[in-house]
Amino acid sequence: MPKSTDIFLVEEKGRCCYRWPLREDNRGYLKTLPAHIRLEYKLSGEKLNLVFAHGSTSSIDEYILIDTDADYVLEMLKEADADLLFVVHFHKPYHRIWKPHIESSNM
């Protein structure tokens, strides 16, 4: 019988990840937290919308990894009206930068 302190290695969506069992009081506390946090930041008069989420903007359990499809992540940014998106579920730091597509014009 597993103890409440046992850590489990499980496969989720084709990837291995760890599961930490939580006590009920901890689960209750986590349920009181917001699904995501939105901050508006002004830099040199320009507004930036920052969105912080555990998994993704739509699910606390979703993994957004460095190889997650760019179109999917960009759609998340658009739906959340975010200039910067911070997700932490995977516990592995990385960053991705997309520059806006600029069409060239013949002048």
From TrEMBL:
<dbReference type="InterPro" id="IPR029052">
    <property type="entry name" value="Metallo-depent_PP-like"/>
</dbReference>
<protein>
    <submittedName>
        <fullName>Uncharacterized protein</fullName>
    </submittedName>
</protein>
